[in-house]
């Protein structure tokens, strides 16, 4: 049962908003709705949600600005964007500013319900602090705490998003091994397509900046194949 799970649906199309809300409620989700970006921000600030379904093209404040506002205070709440099928750049932008996934319109409720279930499970695993993620990991001169979503260097801790944590966890568990791009996308994003691949490249660039203070830790790009996460031991 999903009785305690509360979702925010932000969609300006009245008919679509009604249909999606009705279907979600039939699947035992509690659903608040907003028909524009300003109302979405107000709803978010007044209530606690487990996941947000966010249209890109919204009156008053667009979906990207709503997502950016949310990410200032919550790096981990799952955000699923609803996008027009032809708007390629919107899909890439949405994923790189903090969206977890996108669904192109028109979409099936089965697809939306599946994605909701996947992302709720992931976020619940983080909140629940699973035993396997609670261990401290040393990565070169970094200290990685998956459960706490932190990566520390010489006592300075950086807060990570769930996706950043999952990528670092995957890399650190496969040091000096070749990881195929498709394999990474399937394990971290749950699917594999062009737009998610572009998002992966953005995350890789971000992680390279995080690890830059220690030259012994590198993410090596293997063109057309994937990546190798290398950690050299410091020479005494």
Automatic annotation (TrEMBL):
Record-annotated Response regulatory domain positions: 6-120
Q: SUPFAM superfamilies of this UniProt entry?
A: C-terminal effector domain of the bipartite response regulators, CheY-like
Cross-referenced Pfam families: Response_reg, Trans_reg_C
- Name all OmpR/PhoB-type domain ranges: 134-231
| Source species, domain of life | Bacteria
Listed A to Z, the keywords are: DNA-binding, Phosphoprotein, Transcription, Transcription regulation, Two-component regulatory system
Could you tell me which InterPro entries the record lists for this protein? CheY-like_superfamily, OmpR/PhoB-type_DNA-bd, Sig_transdc_resp-reg_C-effctor, Sig_transdc_resp-reg_receiver, WalR-like, WH-like_DNA-bd_sf
PANTHER family membership: PHOSPHATE REGULON TRANSCRIPTIONAL REGULATORY PROTEIN PHOB, REGULATOR OF RPOS
Instruction: Spell out the protein name for this chain.
Output: DNA-binding response regulator, OmpR family, contains REC and winged-helix (WHTH) domain
Q: Which organism is it from?
A: Mariniphaga anaerophila
Q: What is the lineage of its organism?
A: Bacteria, Pseudomonadati, Bacteroidota, Bacteroidia, Marinilabiliales
